[in-house]
Write a structure and sequence with these properties.
Largest sheet: 5 strands, antiparallel
Number of helices: 3
Length: 180
């Protein structure tokens, strides 16, 4: 309990009480891999599988239109769109044939994508890849009027990859904190 109290103090809880220590202990032994608890001072402690961490809940991405050619700047990422020279499908670049405007947004309830193993919900994919629940809303989803085109760090929706050109390629470029 002393180690947990010390963890809470270092996390920003000024005077942890027995109830707070019991909450952290419950997180440690929870069957939920993404359990979390809130504490005084705006501190949230999250269990990320086998690790406890202090985390601030990320806000969902503000939906933006991606013109082609063009770019959108997101926290830590620059997303570009350009006419395709070849057909790609990687975690950071994919070629698609959009219908209407291309939009970048956060995951929404019910979102699914077809990958080589079949169609899965984005929620299930994020769980399988052990992406912390509090960070999932910050992963860019690329969509158009007909649905999801692809997802950053996952790739294209196989239903939306063209067999021939013309098409567009969406690329994700990581940026440094100070900007690219």
């Amino acid at each position: 309990s002393r180690a947990l109290a010390d963890f809470l103090v270092k996390s920003g809880v000024k005077e942890p009480e027995d109830a707070h220590i019991a909450q952290v202990e419950a997180l440690l032994y929870s069957e939920k891999p993404s359990a979390r608890a809130s504490f005084p001072g705006g501190v949230t402690v999250s269990r990320n599988y086998s690790t406890l961490e202090v985390i601030r809940e990320d806000r969902p991405l503000e939906e933006q239109v991606l013109k082609c050619p063009g770019e959108v700047i997101l926290p830590g990422l620059r997303v570009t769109c350009e006419p395709a020279a070849e057909i790609l499908n990687t975690e950071t670049a994919f070629t698609v044939c959009p219908v209407g405007d291309i939009r970048i947004r956060s995951r929404q309830s019910g979102d699914s994508i077809r990958l080589p193993g079949g169609t899965k919900s984005l929620k299930k994919i994020f769980i399988d890849r052990k992406i912390p629940a509090l960070r999932r809303c910050r992963i860019p989803v690329v969509c158009d009027e007909q649905g999801i085109l692809g997802v950053y760090s996952i790739g294209a929706n196989l239903d939306r990859i063209p067999e021939t050109l013309p098409a567009v390629t969406v690329r994700f470029h990581t940026t440094e904190e100070k900007g690219e």
